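Morning. Coffee machine broken again, so started the prediction first thing and wrote up yesterday's gels while waiting. Chain of 432 residues, entered below exactly as on the submission form.
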Amino acid sequence: MRMYDIISKKRDKQELTKEEISYFIKNLVSGEIPDYQTSALLMAICINGMSDRETLDLTIEMEHSGDCVDLSSLKNTVDKHSTGGVGDKTSLIIVPIAAACGGTVAKMSGRGLGHTGGTIDKLESIPGFKTELSPDVFMKLSKENGLALVGQSGNMAPADKKLYAIRDVTATVSCMPLIVSSIMSKKLAAGAQNIVLDVTVGSGAFIPDINDARVLAQTMVNVGKGAGRNVAAVLTDMDEPLGYSIGNNLEVIEAVDVLKNKGPEDLTFVALTLASEMVSLFSGKPSEECFEECKKVIQNGKALEKFRQMVIAQGGDVSYIDDTTKFKKADYSCEIKAAQSGYISKINTEAIGVSSVMLGAGREKKSDSIDFSAGIRMVKKLGDKVSPQDTIAVLYTSDESRIKDAKAKFESAISYADSYSGERKLVYGVIR
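Came back before lunch.
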Protein backbone atom coordinates (compact mmCIF):
# COMPACT_ATOMS: atom_id res chain seq x y z
CA MET A 1 0.00 0.00 0.00
CA ARG A 2 1.29 3.45 -0.95
CA MET A 3 0.30 6.88 0.33
CA TYR A 4 0.51 8.15 -3.26
CA ASP A 5 -2.32 5.79 -4.30
CA ILE A 6 -4.50 6.81 -1.34
CA ILE A 7 -4.10 10.50 -2.25
CA SER A 8 -4.89 9.93 -5.93
CA LYS A 9 -7.93 7.80 -5.05
CA LYS A 10 -9.46 10.54 -2.87
CA ARG A 11 -8.47 13.17 -5.47
CA ASP A 12 -10.58 11.21 -7.97
CA LYS A 13 -13.60 11.23 -5.62
CA GLN A 14 -13.41 7.56 -4.67
CA GLU A 15 -14.11 6.10 -1.23
CA LEU A 16 -11.15 5.00 0.84
CA THR A 17 -11.31 1.55 2.38
CA LYS A 18 -11.01 0.97 6.12
CA GLU A 19 -7.58 -0.57 5.48
CA GLU A 20 -6.40 2.51 3.59
CA ILE A 21 -7.59 4.84 6.35
CA SER A 22 -5.92 2.64 8.96
CA TYR A 23 -2.66 2.67 6.97
CA PHE A 24 -2.76 6.48 6.80
CA ILE A 25 -3.39 7.02 10.51
CA LYS A 26 -0.87 4.43 11.74
CA ASN A 27 1.89 5.81 9.52
CA LEU A 28 0.95 9.41 10.30
CA VAL A 29 1.41 8.78 14.04
CA SER A 30 4.67 6.87 13.52
CA GLY A 31 6.08 9.72 11.44
CA GLU A 32 6.44 7.69 8.25
CA ILE A 33 4.24 10.00 6.18
CA PRO A 34 5.71 13.41 5.31
CA ASP A 35 3.62 16.52 5.97
CA TYR A 36 3.29 17.32 2.27
CA GLN A 37 1.49 14.02 1.60
CA THR A 38 -0.74 14.48 4.64
CA SER A 39 -1.57 18.00 3.41
CA ALA A 40 -2.44 16.67 -0.05
CA LEU A 41 -4.83 14.07 1.38
CA LEU A 42 -6.46 16.58 3.73
CA MET A 43 -7.11 18.97 0.86
CA ALA A 44 -8.53 16.14 -1.28
CA ILE A 45 -10.86 15.24 1.63
CA CYS A 46 -11.78 18.90 2.09
CA ILE A 47 -12.72 19.26 -1.60
CA ASN A 48 -14.37 15.88 -2.21
CA GLY A 49 -15.70 15.00 1.25
CA MET A 50 -16.09 11.63 2.91
CA SER A 51 -18.96 9.20 3.18
CA ASP A 52 -20.51 8.42 6.56
CA ARG A 53 -18.66 5.11 6.57
CA GLU A 54 -15.30 6.77 5.80
CA THR A 55 -15.87 9.38 8.52
CA LEU A 56 -16.68 6.66 11.06
CA ASP A 57 -13.61 4.62 10.08
CA LEU A 58 -11.38 7.72 10.29
CA THR A 59 -12.78 8.61 13.72
CA ILE A 60 -12.27 5.12 15.15
CA GLU A 61 -8.71 4.89 13.79
CA MET A 62 -7.94 8.30 15.37
CA GLU A 63 -9.55 7.19 18.65
CA HIS A 64 -7.31 4.14 18.81
CA SER A 65 -4.15 5.99 17.72
CA GLY A 66 -3.22 6.50 21.39
CA ASP A 67 -4.48 5.88 24.93
CA CYS A 68 -8.15 5.09 25.54
CA VAL A 69 -9.73 5.43 28.98
CA ASP A 70 -11.50 2.31 30.23
CA LEU A 71 -14.58 3.31 32.23
CA SER A 72 -16.29 -0.08 31.99
CA SER A 73 -16.04 -0.60 35.76
CA LEU A 74 -18.19 2.50 36.38
CA LYS A 75 -21.98 2.67 36.12
CA ASN A 76 -24.02 5.10 33.99
CA THR A 77 -20.97 6.85 32.48
CA VAL A 78 -21.86 10.06 30.69
CA ASP A 79 -19.85 12.86 29.13
CA LYS A 80 -20.53 16.19 27.47
CA HIS A 81 -18.69 18.17 24.82
CA SER A 82 -19.30 21.75 23.72
CA THR A 83 -18.18 23.19 20.41
CA GLY A 84 -17.35 26.38 22.32
CA GLY A 85 -18.80 29.71 23.26
CA VAL A 86 -18.57 32.80 25.45
CA GLY A 87 -19.77 32.69 29.04
CA ASP A 88 -20.34 28.95 28.58
CA LYS A 89 -19.90 27.55 32.07
CA THR A 90 -22.46 24.77 31.64
CA SER A 91 -20.02 21.94 32.46
CA LEU A 92 -19.64 23.31 36.00
CA ILE A 93 -23.41 22.99 36.40
CA ILE A 94 -24.41 19.87 34.51
CA VAL A 95 -21.67 17.58 35.83
CA PRO A 96 -22.94 17.75 39.45
CA ILE A 97 -26.57 17.63 38.27
CA ALA A 98 -25.97 14.42 36.30
CA ALA A 99 -24.04 12.91 39.22
CA ALA A 100 -26.86 13.81 41.63
CA CYS A 101 -29.27 11.98 39.29
CA GLY A 102 -27.25 8.76 39.39
CA GLY A 103 -24.76 9.26 36.58
CA THR A 104 -20.98 8.93 36.65
CA VAL A 105 -19.19 11.84 35.00
CA ALA A 106 -15.50 11.01 34.72
CA LYS A 107 -14.73 14.02 32.56
CA MET A 108 -11.61 15.37 30.89
CA SER A 109 -11.85 19.00 29.82
CA GLY A 110 -9.61 21.49 28.09
CA ARG A 111 -8.20 24.93 28.69
CA GLY A 112 -9.39 28.05 26.94
CA LEU A 113 -7.70 29.25 23.78
CA GLY A 114 -8.82 32.09 21.55
CA HIS A 115 -12.15 33.75 22.36
CA THR A 116 -13.66 30.73 24.18
CA GLY A 117 -13.02 29.89 27.81
CA GLY A 118 -11.91 26.54 29.22
CA THR A 119 -13.48 24.53 32.04
CA ILE A 120 -10.09 23.67 33.54
CA ASP A 121 -9.08 27.34 33.83
CA LYS A 122 -12.37 28.08 35.56
CA LEU A 123 -11.90 25.28 38.07
CA GLU A 124 -8.33 26.37 38.79
CA SER A 125 -9.67 29.77 39.88
CA ILE A 126 -10.97 27.92 42.97
CA PRO A 127 -7.99 28.08 45.39
CA GLY A 128 -6.32 24.68 45.77
CA PHE A 129 -8.40 22.85 43.15
CA LYS A 130 -6.29 20.15 41.45
CA THR A 131 -7.05 19.46 37.81
CA GLU A 132 -4.21 16.95 37.47
CA LEU A 133 -4.92 13.58 39.08
CA SER A 134 -3.28 10.20 38.62
CA PRO A 135 -5.41 7.72 36.65
CA ASP A 136 -6.01 5.68 39.81
CA VAL A 137 -7.20 8.68 41.82
CA PHE A 138 -9.35 9.87 38.89
CA MET A 139 -11.10 6.49 38.73
CA LYS A 140 -11.41 6.25 42.53
CA LEU A 141 -13.11 9.66 42.84
CA SER A 142 -15.38 8.95 39.88
CA LYS A 143 -16.50 5.67 41.45
CA GLU A 144 -16.93 7.02 44.99
CA ASN A 145 -18.49 10.41 44.21
CA GLY A 146 -19.94 9.98 40.72
CA LEU A 147 -17.87 12.84 39.31
CA ALA A 148 -14.35 14.06 38.69
CA LEU A 149 -13.17 16.84 36.37
CA VAL A 150 -9.57 16.86 35.19
CA GLY A 151 -7.44 18.30 32.41
CA GLN A 152 -6.67 16.30 29.29
CA SER A 153 -3.48 14.32 29.77
CA GLY A 154 -1.58 11.33 28.48
CA ASN A 155 -1.45 10.33 24.85
CA MET A 156 -5.11 10.47 23.81
CA ALA A 157 -5.81 10.68 20.07
CA PRO A 158 -2.27 11.73 19.00
CA ALA A 159 -3.41 11.46 15.36
CA ASP A 160 -5.77 14.38 16.00
CA LYS A 161 -2.95 16.57 17.34
CA LYS A 162 -0.84 15.88 14.24
CA LEU A 163 -3.73 16.39 11.83
CA TYR A 164 -4.93 19.59 13.49
CA ALA A 165 -1.47 21.16 13.35
CA ILE A 166 -1.44 20.60 9.59
CA ARG A 167 -5.11 21.55 9.07
CA ASP A 168 -4.42 24.83 10.86
CA VAL A 169 -1.92 25.94 8.20
CA THR A 170 -3.48 24.37 5.09
CA ALA A 171 -6.97 25.97 5.14
CA THR A 172 -8.65 22.63 5.93
CA VAL A 173 -9.92 23.37 9.46
CA SER A 174 -13.52 23.94 8.29
CA CYS A 175 -13.85 20.54 6.55
CA MET A 176 -16.87 18.74 8.07
CA PRO A 177 -15.53 15.12 8.15
CA LEU A 178 -12.28 16.39 9.69
CA ILE A 179 -14.16 18.43 12.32
CA VAL A 180 -16.31 15.43 13.22
CA SER A 181 -13.40 12.99 13.47
CA SER A 182 -11.40 15.48 15.55
CA ILE A 183 -14.17 16.01 18.11
CA MET A 184 -15.51 12.48 18.26
CA SER A 185 -12.17 10.65 18.35
CA LYS A 186 -11.31 12.43 21.62
CA LYS A 187 -14.77 11.88 23.10
CA LEU A 188 -14.74 8.18 22.23
CA ALA A 189 -11.22 7.79 23.65
CA ALA A 190 -12.44 9.38 26.92
CA GLY A 191 -14.47 6.23 27.52
CA ALA A 192 -18.05 7.26 28.41
CA GLN A 193 -20.89 5.11 27.08
CA ASN A 194 -23.24 8.11 26.87
CA ILE A 195 -22.26 11.39 25.23
CA VAL A 196 -24.15 14.69 24.91
CA LEU A 197 -22.88 17.20 22.39
CA ASP A 198 -23.60 20.91 22.89
CA VAL A 199 -23.41 22.33 19.37
CA THR A 200 -23.44 26.11 19.72
CA VAL A 201 -24.81 28.35 16.96
CA GLY A 202 -24.37 32.08 16.36
CA SER A 203 -21.86 34.93 16.41
CA GLY A 204 -19.85 33.46 19.29
CA ALA A 205 -19.81 29.90 17.96
CA PHE A 206 -17.40 27.95 15.80
CA ILE A 207 -20.36 27.25 13.46
CA PRO A 208 -22.44 30.44 13.08
CA ASP A 209 -25.01 29.02 10.63
CA ILE A 210 -27.86 26.87 11.97
CA ASN A 211 -28.01 24.64 8.89
CA ASP A 212 -24.28 23.88 9.04
CA ALA A 213 -24.62 23.24 12.78
CA ARG A 214 -27.41 20.72 12.17
CA VAL A 215 -25.28 18.85 9.65
CA LEU A 216 -22.36 18.78 12.11
CA ALA A 217 -24.60 17.62 14.96
CA GLN A 218 -26.28 14.88 12.93
CA THR A 219 -22.95 13.60 11.58
CA MET A 220 -21.42 13.45 15.06
CA VAL A 221 -24.46 11.61 16.40
CA ASN A 222 -24.26 9.12 13.53
CA VAL A 223 -20.54 8.54 14.14
CA GLY A 224 -21.06 8.09 17.88
CA LYS A 225 -23.85 5.58 17.37
CA GLY A 226 -21.77 3.80 14.71
CA ALA A 227 -19.07 3.42 17.36
CA GLY A 228 -21.55 1.81 19.76
CA ARG A 229 -22.23 4.79 22.04
CA ASN A 230 -25.49 6.50 23.02
CA VAL A 231 -25.32 10.06 21.69
CA ALA A 232 -27.52 13.15 21.58
CA ALA A 233 -26.73 16.63 20.26
CA VAL A 234 -28.35 19.82 21.53
CA LEU A 235 -28.25 22.90 19.29
CA THR A 236 -27.90 25.95 21.57
CA ASP A 237 -27.78 29.67 20.90
CA MET A 238 -24.53 31.64 21.11
CA ASP A 239 -25.66 34.95 19.59
CA GLU A 240 -24.90 36.55 22.94
CA PRO A 241 -22.89 35.42 25.98
CA LEU A 242 -24.60 32.74 28.05
CA GLY A 243 -25.57 34.17 31.40
CA TYR A 244 -24.12 37.52 32.49
CA SER A 245 -20.52 36.63 33.42
CA ILE A 246 -17.45 36.05 31.24
CA GLY A 247 -14.14 35.18 32.91
CA ASN A 248 -12.92 32.46 35.19
CA ASN A 249 -13.89 33.13 38.80
CA LEU A 250 -16.82 35.26 37.59
CA GLU A 251 -18.17 32.21 35.76
CA VAL A 252 -17.61 29.90 38.73
CA ILE A 253 -19.63 32.31 40.88
CA GLU A 254 -22.47 32.36 38.34
CA ALA A 255 -22.43 28.56 37.99
CA VAL A 256 -22.66 28.23 41.78
CA ASP A 257 -25.58 30.68 41.72
CA VAL A 258 -27.40 28.31 39.34
CA LEU A 259 -26.70 25.37 41.65
CA LYS A 260 -28.05 27.50 44.53
CA ASN A 261 -31.23 28.01 42.45
CA LYS A 262 -30.66 31.73 41.92
CA GLY A 263 -28.87 31.86 38.58
CA PRO A 264 -29.78 33.63 35.31
CA GLU A 265 -32.76 32.17 33.48
CA ASP A 266 -31.01 31.60 30.14
CA LEU A 267 -28.03 29.79 31.66
CA THR A 268 -30.27 27.73 33.95
CA PHE A 269 -32.51 26.63 31.08
CA VAL A 270 -29.65 25.63 28.77
CA ALA A 271 -27.88 23.77 31.59
CA LEU A 272 -31.06 21.90 32.53
CA THR A 273 -31.66 20.98 28.88
CA LEU A 274 -28.15 19.55 28.51
CA ALA A 275 -28.29 17.78 31.87
CA SER A 276 -31.68 16.24 31.10
CA GLU A 277 -30.31 14.75 27.87
CA MET A 278 -27.38 13.29 29.83
CA VAL A 279 -29.70 11.70 32.36
CA SER A 280 -32.05 10.48 29.63
CA LEU A 281 -29.22 8.69 27.83
CA PHE A 282 -28.03 6.66 30.82
CA SER A 283 -31.45 6.10 32.43
CA GLY A 284 -33.56 5.45 29.35
CA LYS A 285 -36.26 7.81 30.67
CA PRO A 286 -37.85 10.53 28.48
CA SER A 287 -35.90 13.79 28.47
CA GLU A 288 -38.99 15.73 29.63
CA GLU A 289 -39.16 13.60 32.78
CA CYS A 290 -35.40 13.98 33.27
CA PHE A 291 -35.69 17.77 32.94
CA GLU A 292 -37.96 17.83 35.99
CA GLU A 293 -35.63 15.47 37.85
CA CYS A 294 -32.69 17.79 37.13
CA LYS A 295 -34.67 20.80 38.36
CA LYS A 296 -35.45 18.90 41.55
CA VAL A 297 -31.80 18.18 42.42
CA ILE A 298 -31.06 21.89 42.10
CA GLN A 299 -34.04 22.84 44.27
CA ASN A 300 -33.27 20.31 47.01
CA GLY A 301 -29.54 21.15 47.08
CA LYS A 302 -28.26 17.71 45.96
CA ALA A 303 -26.52 19.09 42.86
CA LEU A 304 -24.76 21.78 44.88
CA GLU A 305 -23.65 19.16 47.40
CA LYS A 306 -22.16 17.09 44.55
CA PHE A 307 -20.22 20.13 43.36
CA ARG A 308 -18.95 20.76 46.91
CA GLN A 309 -17.99 17.08 47.15
CA MET A 310 -15.94 17.36 43.95
CA VAL A 311 -14.19 20.55 45.11
CA ILE A 312 -13.22 18.97 48.44
CA ALA A 313 -12.10 15.70 46.82
CA GLN A 314 -9.85 17.56 44.38
CA GLY A 315 -8.21 19.76 47.01
CA GLY A 316 -10.21 22.96 46.52
CA ASP A 317 -11.18 25.36 49.29
CA VAL A 318 -14.92 24.73 49.54
CA SER A 319 -15.44 27.88 51.63
CA TYR A 320 -15.23 29.81 48.33
CA ILE A 321 -18.25 27.84 47.09
CA ASP A 322 -20.18 28.40 50.29
CA ASP A 323 -19.36 32.13 50.19
CA THR A 324 -18.49 33.25 46.67
CA THR A 325 -17.71 36.80 47.84
CA LYS A 326 -14.34 35.36 48.96
CA PHE A 327 -13.11 35.08 45.37
CA LYS A 328 -10.40 37.59 44.50
CA LYS A 329 -11.77 40.75 42.96
CA ALA A 330 -10.02 42.51 40.13
CA ASP A 331 -7.94 45.57 41.02
CA TYR A 332 -9.51 47.68 38.27
CA SER A 333 -12.95 47.97 36.71
CA CYS A 334 -14.50 50.07 33.96
CA GLU A 335 -18.18 50.68 33.31
CA ILE A 336 -19.28 50.79 29.68
CA LYS A 337 -22.20 53.07 28.92
CA ALA A 338 -24.67 52.70 26.07
CA ALA A 339 -23.55 54.59 22.96
CA GLN A 340 -27.08 55.86 22.21
CA SER A 341 -30.73 55.55 23.13
CA GLY A 342 -32.64 52.62 21.69
CA TYR A 343 -32.38 48.85 21.90
CA ILE A 344 -29.42 46.50 21.84
CA SER A 345 -30.18 44.88 18.49
CA LYS A 346 -27.12 42.71 17.87
CA ILE A 347 -24.09 41.44 19.77
CA ASN A 348 -20.90 40.14 18.17
CA THR A 349 -20.30 37.49 20.80
CA GLU A 350 -16.88 36.49 19.47
CA ALA A 351 -15.69 40.10 19.89
CA ILE A 352 -16.98 40.04 23.49
CA GLY A 353 -14.91 36.92 24.08
CA VAL A 354 -11.85 38.57 22.54
CA SER A 355 -12.40 41.58 24.81
CA SER A 356 -12.32 39.32 27.88
CA VAL A 357 -9.07 37.75 26.64
CA MET A 358 -7.60 41.23 26.21
CA LEU A 359 -8.46 41.91 29.87
CA GLY A 360 -6.43 38.85 30.88
CA ALA A 361 -9.23 36.28 31.27
CA GLY A 362 -7.95 34.06 28.46
CA ARG A 363 -4.95 33.15 26.35
CA GLU A 364 -3.97 34.30 22.90
CA LYS A 365 -1.26 31.62 22.92
CA LYS A 366 -0.82 28.55 25.10
CA SER A 367 2.06 30.02 27.11
CA ASP A 368 0.04 33.04 28.33
CA SER A 369 -0.88 33.20 32.01
CA ILE A 370 -4.45 33.74 33.23
CA ASP A 371 -5.80 36.51 35.46
CA PHE A 372 -8.56 34.59 37.25
CA SER A 373 -10.30 37.77 38.39
CA ALA A 374 -10.42 39.38 34.92
CA GLY A 375 -13.50 39.33 32.77
CA ILE A 376 -16.78 41.01 31.93
CA ARG A 377 -20.13 41.27 33.65
CA MET A 378 -22.96 42.01 31.26
CA VAL A 379 -25.60 44.34 32.67
CA LYS A 380 -27.78 44.64 29.57
CA LYS A 381 -28.47 41.94 27.02
CA LEU A 382 -29.94 41.49 23.55
CA GLY A 383 -33.25 43.33 23.14
CA ASP A 384 -32.84 45.50 26.26
CA LYS A 385 -33.87 49.14 26.02
CA VAL A 386 -31.05 51.55 26.90
CA SER A 387 -30.17 55.22 27.12
CA PRO A 388 -26.71 56.87 27.14
CA GLN A 389 -26.51 57.00 30.96
CA ASP A 390 -27.13 53.24 31.27
CA THR A 391 -24.29 50.87 32.10
CA ILE A 392 -24.37 47.95 29.66
CA ALA A 393 -21.33 46.08 31.04
CA VAL A 394 -18.47 46.25 33.53
CA LEU A 395 -14.93 45.21 32.60
CA TYR A 396 -12.57 43.77 35.22
CA THR A 397 -8.79 43.34 35.15
CA SER A 398 -5.70 43.39 37.37
CA ASP A 399 -3.75 45.31 34.71
CA GLU A 400 -5.09 48.81 34.11
CA SER A 401 -3.19 49.11 30.83
CA ARG A 402 -5.44 46.44 29.30
CA ILE A 403 -8.66 48.42 29.73
CA LYS A 404 -8.44 50.88 26.81
CA ASP A 405 -8.14 48.33 24.00
CA ALA A 406 -10.53 45.86 25.63
CA LYS A 407 -13.13 48.62 26.03
CA ALA A 408 -12.84 49.58 22.37
CA LYS A 409 -13.21 45.95 21.34
CA PHE A 410 -16.29 45.50 23.52
CA GLU A 411 -17.94 48.67 22.25
CA SER A 412 -17.40 47.55 18.64
CA ALA A 413 -19.39 44.40 19.41
CA ILE A 414 -22.65 46.16 20.32
CA SER A 415 -25.20 47.36 17.74
CA TYR A 416 -28.21 49.54 18.47
CA ALA A 417 -31.58 50.12 16.78
CA ASP A 418 -34.69 52.21 17.35
CA SER A 419 -36.77 49.09 17.87
CA TYR A 420 -36.32 45.40 18.56
CA SER A 421 -38.76 42.64 17.66
CA GLY A 422 -36.49 39.62 17.83
CA GLU A 423 -37.01 36.72 20.18
CA ARG A 424 -34.06 34.73 21.46
CA LYS A 425 -34.39 30.98 21.05
CA LEU A 426 -32.04 29.34 23.55
CA VAL A 427 -32.34 25.80 22.17
CA TYR A 428 -32.89 25.16 18.46
CA GLY A 429 -33.49 21.46 18.80
CA VAL A 430 -32.17 18.08 19.91
CA ILE A 431 -30.82 15.41 17.58
CA ARG A 432 -30.82 11.86 18.91
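The chain has a mean pLDDT of 94. Going to sketch it on the whiteboard this afternoon.
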